[in-house]
Amino acid sequence: MTDNPTPEVKISVPADQTPKRIDKFIAENLPGVSRSYIQILIQEGKVSCSGKAVKASDKIISGQEITVVLETRPHTEVEPENIQIDIVYEDESLVVVNKPAGLVVHPAVGNWSGTLVNALMYHYNSLSTLSGETRPGIVHRLDKDTSGLMVVAKNDFVHAELSRQFADKSAGRIYQAVVWGVPAKEKQTIEGFIARNVRDRKKMMATADGGKWAVTHMSLIESFANMMSLCQYELATGRTHQIRVHTASIGFPVFGDPTYGGRKQGMSGLNQEKAAFAAGLFKEFKRQALHARKLSFYHPVQEKMVTFESELPADMRKLIEQLRDFR
Predict the structure, then answer these.
(1) Residue 3 is a catalytic residue
(2) Is residue 3 predicted with pLDDT exceeding 60?
(3) Could you please report the per-residue DSSP string of 225-237?
(4) Which of 41, 62, 93, 299 has CA 20 to 30 A from 32's CA?
C-alpha cells in the first residue's frame, strides 16, 4: 500500500517541443487539472524548474523537468443529487463508473444540475479536488452522448497519478462505434492535428498543422450491407472529440453524430431502400453510436495494472441487430 502524500508530478519537456507558456504546457500534460488551478499553484510557488520557481508566462525550454506540487483545493459547492450511478468497481481510492448516454459529466453553463458530478457528490463524502470546484473526482471526460467507462478519483494523490498516466499515454482506452461506410483496411492508424473550429468554437476539426497532434488506431470488427460498420478505436492521445473527428476525417463518421456528419451527410449516396431504412433507425437511435468499452491503468495504491470492460449498451446492441437483419 502507498500512503497519500501531497501529490507531486514531474513533467519532462520533449526535445522537439515548440515554445509555449508553462501554464498552458502543464495543463495540456495533466488531463483533468485545470489551467486556472495551475496558475494558482504557480502563484503559490508550487511549480518549479530545476528547483527555481516560475511565472505562468515563462516559456518552456526543451529538456527541462518541471515539478508540480498539486495542493488540495477548497471544498466544492456542487449540489449533491440522488442520481443512480452504474458502478463497475470501487475501492477506498477510486471508482470506475459506466456512464450512460445523455448524462453530462460535470456542471457547466446550461447544465448546472443533473450531472455525473452531482450524483458523485451525493454518493461520496470524499472526492479529489484537483479539477476544480465543479469537477470533483473527474480525471477524464466523456461527451454527453457517449456512453461507457470512466475512472473517478477519491483523493488528490490518486487523481495526480491517474492524470499523469492519461498524459503519458500509459492508461489504455478502447472504444467501439457504429460508423457510416466500410473501411477497406481491417486496421489503420489515423494521425493528424486536431484544433478548435474557427467558425464554431463548440466543434473541433482535423487540420494539416496547428492544434494538438492526435493518434487513433482503428480496427474493423463487422460490416453491414456495405453501408455501415462496427469499428474499434484505441486512443494513443486524448483530444477533445478525437474519435469523432478522426473517423469522420477519413470518411467514416459515427452513426447519429450530428456534429461531424453522422446524420444527413452519412445518408448521402444511399439508394431509396437504404435511405428509408436509415431514416427509420434515426427515429429510434437519438445519439452518436460511440461507447467507451475498455479502460486500463496502473492502480496507484494497489500498485498493479487493472482493466475494466463494459459491454455495449442496449441501444447500440439493438442498432447492430437491426443492421445485421437488413438485407
Answers:
(1) no
(2) no
(3) TTTEEEEEEEESS
(4) 62
